Amino acid sequence: MPFVLYLLGLAVFAQATSEFMLSGLGPDIAQDLGVSIPAAGWLTSAFALGMIVGAPAIALLGARWPRRRTLLVTLTVFLAVHVIGALTTSFTVLLITRVLAALANAGFLAIALATATGLVRPDAKGRATSVLLGGTTLACIVGVPAGALLGAHLGWRSAFWAVAIISLPTLIAIRRSVPARGTGPTTIGRFRIGPRLGVVLLLGALVNGATFCSFTYLAPVLTEVTGLGVGWVPPMLAVFGLGSFAGVTVAGRYADRGSRLLTLVAGGILLLGWCAFALTAAHVVPTVVLAFLQGALSFAVGSTLIAYALYAGAESPVLTGGLATAALNVGAAAGPVLGGLAIGAAGYRGPLWVSATLVGTAVCVAGGSVRLVHREGPG
Q1: 3-state DSSP call for residue 194?
Q2: How far apart are CA 22 and CA 148, in angstroms?
Q3: pTM score, two decimals?
Q4: Cα-based distances in Å from 272 to 118, 167, 303, 343
């Protein structure tokens, strides 16, 4: 893999840290700004909504701009709004900064996906995607727990400052190492969302919705259901992150082979895992094991679906990257909202059951469309 892909992965690391770190900072933000924990969960949903809007819109712009320019502009905006978020004392202002940060993140990720897949062989899109998403999983392993530790000892604002600081050297690296213009097709006028791409985008939304539904409220699940102290939250987030890194790494090797049956089986196991998590969340050992397994399976299935989308929309990788990013964040926006409602109705186990329901729906959709997807597989 070209070294520049790992630089793009570093930027994705900073952005994913920002997106995911609220799972560990939510209770502190809620207390500091005088809102409820479910209301603090809306910060995650706001971020996801911004990505839904920003991904296809900025992808369209990025198809005409030099890709390096788009990457630099979006990352600069991302850095600036984190500084504002670290300084504000208003929940409303913080909510707005999350939307703006998401718009910038969405545009960056859409262009980064197109850039990454344009720098490798046509049959290596899955591995290129896994390098970028490796930044996301490393954020779960290192960035999010570090953000939780900073929040515990220096306040939640310190985590926002840390994201801004990490983004600064990444700007310099991208300017020096990313080609000014990307490679590969950029056709937009004739681009159409076919049946295969539509199904893959729907599956991505459902699976990511399940992931964010439970991950957003993992901290209160650990403290209120499992009975662990707040000091356990950062290492448990790291356990989830280690699982996600393992899942993305394995998925990168299999996504290019077009093994739909393997993906369907993994989805079925993911469904069983969420059910088991909900039933055993009061016990420490199953919670630790399932946090790892669900992280691995969630990100393995999710990253594979992104690769499938890029194969299905190969005539316009920029726009396809934007649509894939938007679809994933439809789930990321809906998940915390559904999880918050479930907490009010059924307690802190509720998000785990909602995750099971969403994955179960995805498995049914995938099972009904597996012939279509197999007939038009990559390669």
Answers
A1: coil
A2: 8
A3: 0.73
A4: 37, 38, 20, 21
C-alpha dist (Å) from residue 93 to 43, 82, 165, 185, 259: 11, 11, 21, 39, 45
Residue (of 237, 233, 207) closest to 222 by Cα position: 233
What CA–CA distance (Å, rounded) separates 328 from 373? Answer: 19
Alpha-carbon separation of residue 347 from 168, 216, 280, 336, 351 (angstroms): 41, 14, 14, 14, 9
Contacts of 231 (CB under 8 A, 6+ apart): 152
CA distance 147 to 354: 27
Judge contact between 303 and 255, C-beta under 8 A. yes
Q: Kindly calculate the radius of gyration of the chain based on its CA atoms and give it in whole angstroms.
A: 19
Per residue, the 3-state secondary structure of 221-232, as one string, reads: HHHHHHCCCHHH
Q: What amino acid occupies position 74? A: T
What is the C-alpha to C-alpha distance for residues 128 and 118, in angstroms, rounded to an integer? 9
Rounded distance, CA 357 to CA 241, Å? 23
Helix (H) or strand (E) run with residue 339 in it: helix 317-346
Question: Which stretches of the chain drop beneath a pLDDT of 50?
Answer: 183-186, 374-379
In three-state secondary structure terms, 180 is: coil
Burial (CB count <10 Å: 0-12, 13-18, 19+), residue 115: buried
Token couple for 323: 């649509």
Gap between the Cα atoms of 376 and 378, Å rounded: 7
Q: Report the run of H or E that residue 103 belongs to, with start and end.
A: helix 91-118
- Block residue for tokens 């539509």: 198
List C-alpha distances in Å: 299 to 66, 118, 260: 30, 23, 16
